[in-house]
Amino acid sequence: MPTMWVTEFVANGPRERDGSPAVPPIGTQVVTFSTSAATANALSAACDTIQIVVDTDAHVSFAPTPTATVNDMFLAKDIPHRFTLRTTGLKVAAIAAV
């Protein structure tokens, strides 16, 4: 089953010289998905940056109640993808790219 790892980093926390968030993260979610979309729990209001890694090519969607489709943002497998959150209360959903 394809897997998505969502790692959350603290808002306004220390940054490395390259601007990346300092570790340790404040949380990690592991979500399995398939050709049917699956959704992570709400992201912490205390985070402003997340990193997503998928072990199969996937499409992801961000919203308070997202449903990922093959028309959403594409993420290549095995590459860490970082995102800055502009609002709280978001979840991320993933679906396998076909």
Order of helices and strands: EEEEEEEE
Radius of gyration: 13 Å
Shape: globular
Spatial sequence of strands, sheet with the most strands: 2-1-4-7
Terminal Cα span: 14 Å
* Uncertain residue ranges: none
Number of helices, counting only DSSP H or I runs of 4 residues or more = 0
Biggest sheet descriptor: 4 strands, antiparallel
Number of E strands? 8
The structure class reads mainly beta
How would you describe this protein?
With 98 residues, the chain is mainly beta. 0% of the residues lie in helices and 44% in strands. It has strands spanning 3-10, 27-32, 38-39, 47-54, 58-63, 73-75, 81-84, 91-96. The model has no long low-confidence stretch (mean pLDDT 93).
Task: List descriptors.
98 residues; mainly beta; 4-stranded antiparallel sheet; globular
Summarize the structure.
With 98 residues, the chain is an all-beta fold.
